[in-house]
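FAQ

Q: What does a record look like?
A: Structure on top, sequence underneath. For example:
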């Protein structure tokens, strides 16, 4: 059986090394981690003429990677001096629609860093625009988080303490509607979110950084690939039964 197809929304960038003009990029580490977990990554174009639902329907699973900051105007704030905007003004709306389409269609979704923040904002939540250095270093550092026992995340990475690699300067503020916090850092920063009953995980850290050496991080990629495979195989079996 072929590898499950995992759609990965690309970040539209004004400059990409080796290209004359603008381009769409995804971190190679993210793509390699999907391959290592048994999936086949396919980059999704933010300027597609198809709807989010039509795009998502082509894939067995979706992975939303990290990237630039979510626009503060989406949660009623003004940008501060630390704001790092996307190059493409439609990036936030595009990725929000992809996430909503995944949840609606039951397509397994893994959201990383910016993906978690966008999930929170898309459901009416807010962000802390900049984390000052404190008891936990969240940018370019490895630190522990505590995973809730009663969560999908715990079934994937285990409950209790998990060491994670972080690279972010923003964090969840007011929690969005219908979201469950399933991991947190020692300073209270939200590290994972879930939508109860949905086949999705959102983590604030970057599992691709250490997936080659950290079984818990590799397990996140295995989860989305395996969930995608199970969904695909179930759909195929149902279609076959209906054809008889």
């Amino acid at each position: 059986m072929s590898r499950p197809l995992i759609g990965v929304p690309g970040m539209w960038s004004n400059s990409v090394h080796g290209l004359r003009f603008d381009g769409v990029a995804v971190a190679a580490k993210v793509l390699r981690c999907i391959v290592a977990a048994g999936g086949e990554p396919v980059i999704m174009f933010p300027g597609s003429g198809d709807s989010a639902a039509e795009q998502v329907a082509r894939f067995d699973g979706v992975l939303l990677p990290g990237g630039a900051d979510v626009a503060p105007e989406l949660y009623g704030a003004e940008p501060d001096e630390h704001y790092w905007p996307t190059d493409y003004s439609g990036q936030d709306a595009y990725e929000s629609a992809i996430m909503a389409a995944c949840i609606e269609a039951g397509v397994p979704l893994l959201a990383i860093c910016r993906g978690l923040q966008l999930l929170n904002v898309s459901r009416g939540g807010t962000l802390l625009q900049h984390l000052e250095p404190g008891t936990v270093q969240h940018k370019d550092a490895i630190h522990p988080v505590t995973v809730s026992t009663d969560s999908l995340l715990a079934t994937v990475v285990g409950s209790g303490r998990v060491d994670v690699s972080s690279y972010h300067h923003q964090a969840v503020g007011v929690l969005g509607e219908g979201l469950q916090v399933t991991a947190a850092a020692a300073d209270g920063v939200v590290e994972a979110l879930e939508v109860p009953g949905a086949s999705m995980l959102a983590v604030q850290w970057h599992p691709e950084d250490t997936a080659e050496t950290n079984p818990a991080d590799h397990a996140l990629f295995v989860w989305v690939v395996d969930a995608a495979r199970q969904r695909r195989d179930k759909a195929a079996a149902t279609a076959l039964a209906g054809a008889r």
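Q: Is there anything notable about this one?
A: The longest strand covers residues 139-147.
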